[in-house]
Amino acid sequence: MPSKQCKQCRERIHARATKCPHCKCWQSWSGVIPRTMEITTMALIVLIAAAVAYVPVGHYLQDTFYADTHEIVRWQVYKHYGERSKRESYTIGPEVITPTNYWSAKNLAKDISGEVSNSNASAILRCIYSRWSECDGITIYAQGDTVRIDKPAGMPSLAAEYVTTALKYDKHAPIYFMTVAPGGWTVKLNQHQS
């Protein structure tokens, strides 16, 4: 019969024994509690430590994302992740960026920025903000303070969504009213802003 020495009393015991029949000492690392309980306790400590670390790391990543991302792109990413989380709230903000989606959010922001820089998105916004005076290369149909802007052919969807997000959320936009259609945007200017 294979045997081993008890960790406490040094008597010979069965090799697979978990508790010494002589001194009643557990044959675990601590000798006080069974090995399964030690493993469970360590796993629980690791899980608690990870949960405690998750919140500060999440806040750090939210702050980093906020600092590294253009405002309109940031709102577009927040909206994307807010819709994916199916939040009931109308307030969508930094809390949608978590340690589990941080890198995909950064990649989405990079994709949006890339599509915006390779398209007419900035030119469309410049056209609106200038009250139609700088609209080179943009097809517009103006009537008083209302204008319809055609979405350029081949404009990527993220760039078109960027224009919509900018018109909807930019507090400096001279817009009173806006509608979005598959072919472009209809905008009515605010009379009180110059």
Note down, in words, how this protein is organized.
Among the domains are: 55-117, no CATH class; 121-159 and 170-189, no CATH class. The strands form 2 sheets. Strands 3-4-6-5 form a 4-stranded antiparallel beta sheet, covered by helices on one side. The protein has a two-stranded antiparallel sheet with strand order 1-2. It has 194 residues and is an alpha+beta fold. The termini are far apart. It is 44% helix and 14% strand.
Summarize the structure.
By secondary structure, the chain is α+β, with helices and mostly antiparallel strands. The protein is built from five helices and six strands.
How many distinct beta strands? Answer: 6
In DSSP terms (H or I, runs of 4 or more residues), the helix count works out at 5
Order of helices and strands: EEHHHHEEHEE
Rounded radius of gyration (Å): 31 Å
- Average pLDDT level: 85
Span of the ends, CA to CA: 95 Å
Low-confidence stretches: none
Largest sheet: 4 strands, antiparallel
Q: Per DSSP, what share of the residues sits in E-state strands of 2 or more residues?
A: 5-15%
Given the helix and strand composition, which structural class is it? alpha+beta
Strand order of the largest sheet: 3-4-6-5
Query: What overall form do the CA principal axes indicate?
Result: rod-shaped
Instruction: State the helical fraction.
Output: 40-55%
